[in-house]
Design goal:
It is built from one helix and six strands, in the order ββββββα. The relative contact order is 0.15. The chain has a domain at 28-97: Arylsulfatase, C-terminal domain. The longest helix has 18 residues, at 80-97. A hairpin with a 2-residue loop joins strand 3 and strand 4. By secondary structure, it is α+β, with helices and mostly antiparallel strands. 18% of the residues lie in helices and 33% in strands. It has one helix spanning 80-97; strands spanning 9-14, 17-22, 34-39, 42-47, 50-55, 61-64.
């Protein structure tokens, strides 16, 4: 039997607007906009093709989804300036959305 794949979509409500993007579609968000999410101890920020991620007690990670869609190559250790910029973006978005990095 052949493998089957399910391509899901993610829907995110941001400032009273729905943001829908097919998962693994290769479509990126507008690089001038940052979208931050926080749920169950996991924090995310999307800016263009970049994804900032923190899961529970782990360190922050950065992935370029245009070249690394499976999130195998964490850029945080080799791009500290990018990490600081994305963390600042996350803090701004977290304050706007009334959630904090804990």
């Amino acid at each position: 039997m052949a493998d089957s794949f399910c391509w899901a979509t993610r829907t995110v409500k941001v400032d009273n607007c729905d943001f829908i993007r097919p998962a693994s579609s290769g479509l990126s968000t507008d690089p001038s906009e940052a979208i931050a999410l926080s749920t169950a101890g996991r924090h995310f920020l999307y800016r263009g093709d970049l994804k900032l991620l923190k899961e529970l007690e782990s360190d922050w990670e950065i992935y370029d989804l245009s070249t690394d869609p499976y999130e195998r190559h964490d850029l945080a250790g080799i791009r500290p300036e990018l990490l600081q910029k994305l963390l600042a973006d996350f803090q701004v978005q977290a304050a706007k959305s009334n959630f904090l990095d804990r």
